[in-house]
Amino acid sequence: SSYTLKSQLGKDSVIYLDHPRAANHELAEPAKGEDEVDGHHRFRVELKAGETKAFKVRERQEVATVVQLLGTPADTIRFYFQQRYVSAKAKLLLEQLMLVQGQISGLKVRENELTQERARLTEDQSRIRQNLQVLRESAGELEMRKKYLARLEQAESRLEVIRDEAKQALDTRTQLEQDLSKRVRDFRED
Description:
Elements: E1 2-6, E2 13-20, E3 26-29, E4 35-37, E5 40-47, E6 52-56, E7 58-60, H1 74-81, H2 88-134, H3 139-186
Antiparallel strand pairs: 1-6, 2-5, 3-7, 4-5
């Protein structure tokens, strides 16, 4: 708020200005009033004879925003990154967050792919075992049995690789999530 004060007295004088105090706000300019009276800040202003003086009162309110960062889509993080009120230190954290969450997303996609491949291979193995049970001991069927057994062995080898890769992806993702959670939790603006 801005006030214009004018002395209409022919001598130097003191004016007391009462400015309504806003809830949850504190004075920014001037830093302090002379007194507080009935929900108003009272200011003492000295005026010389005939003087006109501008008097500003600025108040500020602390505003805090809580943002859930973990698991937040990259577009949302990018939105916060573009806000002018975000400090350089917070922007660095947001950049790291986007990078690591991208890695985490990639690992989740890979884990899903491996789960689907494992399901297909398990289904194929089941079908091959059923086919093996109906084969007889004739020469033609013995050749077919060898092919089925080779396919079972290939599938089993691939399943072992899938198990190892899935475990590695899960371990890596878990570690990244824990590190990221700690980084966000420990972040201080200072």
